[in-house]
Amino acid sequence: MPPLRIAAVQQCDFPDALPRTPPAMTLLPDARCTLAERADADEIIDARSPAEFAEDHLPGARNCPVLNDEERAAVGTLYQNSPFEARKVGAAMVARHLAQYLDHEFADRPKSWRPLVYCWRGGMRSASFVTWLRLIGWRATQLAGGYKTWRNHVLQTLDEQPPRYHWRVICGPTGSAKTRLLTALAACGEQTLDLEALAAHKGSVLGALPDTPQPSQKAFETQLSETLVALDPTRPVYVEAESRKIGRVALPNALIDAMRNADCLELSPSPEVRLRYLLDDYAYLGQNPQDLCAQLERLRGFIDNAALTRWQQWAQEGNLPELFAELLTHHYDPLYAHSQYRHFNKLHHAPRFHPDDLSEAALAALAEKIVGRYSGT
Fold it and tell me: What are the helix and strand counts (H, E) for the chain?
């Protein structure tokens, strides 16, 4: 292996959140790689702090922080007064973490191991990591530009990919089993995009999933971008109609625009059929009345106070049939009537289906019918 040359520059990268440019050290060209070359790595290592990693990271990466959250904050604070002291203190912290990884996590890696390491912007944290791995003899590389390069790639993907596809949007009022139909279409071999699965949320005011937190906005966008690039643009993609936000995560503008100008199909089961479906699909809400009341509180200001008080009382009593029946009549259905035909440009001319059974078996049959309609069989 040729000798490794390290060139010092003016700024420490340990805080990584500092506004000024440059990493603290640069590596030879063969020690740096692009996003396109990441598939050549045996392992992707995220050298950022656990909090940074938890917010978002490259798919498949493992977190081996060279500074934990508290250390990163301390070094960043110290840097404001003395960059030299910050580099000195930070270097000692980094060295301790690297020694730990070499003693344990990487102890069994073969000589042929080729890890890719990145930090926030391709600065000192990942450069320090790569330097030591390469001195040992491993062909470690640093991602040029770090996580910021990945983030820019995600945003570009979310802007460029949606217009490439032929979308078919499944519309229908709350309780019409749009998500279950999407699953049935996937089982028929059709391409689907399940945005609610990616967002870990059902999309309605009561859509939060029990014991399942939503991803951060950045993590949601990473998952969405990876899903989009895996789709085949020569085949249609079915997706459920959504508003701009699913819970607390927002859809990219390019996807919203593509969906709102796409071909549609509409599910229109009777209110009685929808109520039965909701009582089954949201049965878990009856297990935690206090949480259900808190979710209903988000409607304050959108409905009259008397109705909200009544609904919260029913939630406390576990009276979901009356609660859901009024939610459909007084909240969800008026909202659907006001928004869907206004937002989805082709919904007025869409084929409409009136299923009287929303069981998985019935929706599997409906999915086959829909596929046959579009294929002419």
Answer: 15, 14
Would 1 be classed as within a structural domain?
A: no
pLDDT of 18 higher than 50? no
CB atoms within 10 A of CB 334: 12
Q: What is the mean pLDDT of residues 270-279?
A: 97
* Cα–Cα distance for residue pair 58/147, rounded to 1 Å: 8
Query: 284 lies in which domain range?
Result: 164-375
Q: Give 14's pLDDT tier (boundaries 50, 70, 90).
A: low
Question: Is residue 223 domain-resident?
Answer: yes
| Same-domain status, 77 and 213 | no
**Among residues 120, 155, 190, which one ends one of the domains?**
155
Which residues in 188-206 are b (16+ Cβ under 10 Å) and which e?
eebbbbebbebbbbbbbbb
Percent of the chain with pLDDT strictly greater than 90: 88
- Same domain for 87 and 191, yes or no, is no
Residue 3: is its pLDDT beyond 90? no
Domain membership of residue 34 (yes or no) is: yes
The total of structural domains in the chain comes to: 2
In a domain, residue 286? The reply is yes
Side chain identity at 39, as an amino acid letter? Answer: A
> Is residue 180 pLDDT above 50, yes or no?
yes
Please enumerate in sequence order all residues whose Cβ is within 8 A of that of 145, keeping only pairs 6 or more positions apart, or say none. 121, 122, 152
Model-wide pTM > 0.70: yes
pLDDT tens profile 118-135? 999 999 999 999 999 999
Q: Are 44 and 118 in contact (CB under 8 A)?
A: yes
Q: What are phi and psi of 358, to 5 degrees?
A: -110, 25
What residues act catalytically?
Answer: 119
CATH code, domain carrying 357: 3.40.50
Contact partners, residue 103, CB within 8 Å, separation at least 6:
none
**Residues 336, 173 contacting (CB under 8 angstroms):** yes
- Residues 357, 279, single domain; the answer is yes
